[in-house]
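hey so u asked for the seq, here:
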Amino acid sequence: QVQLVESGGGLVQAGGSLRLSCAASGSIRRINAMGWYRQVPGKQRELVAVISSGGSTNYADSAKGRFTISRDNAKNTVYLQMNSLKPEDTAVYYCNANVVARILPDDYWGQGTQVTVSS
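ran it, structure tokens below
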């Protein structure tokens, strides 16, 4: 069993910053890619940023230049530093990890953390 626990969401004014954290725990042999997604009501969940086990990153166009994803492999934790936040960044942010618990990798999700950016 693998659990992902997110923290760091909240309410911030436009132009402000937030840092999200997501810690993975449980029966983990190896974590491959980790990432952040977001979802607003009535829309599909969308990728924000992803980071490989080796540190390679990929960002959605909306996140480039403002958000930074990083990870601490020793702590099985991924972070998302969000700067210059805009009202359109308001969403529930979900952590995702591709984890090898036994033999084959599988995707796991956190419970989500609300980010609200006021104008």
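Residues 98 and 104 are 10 Å apart (CA to CA). The chain has a mean pLDDT of 97.
lmk if thats what u needed
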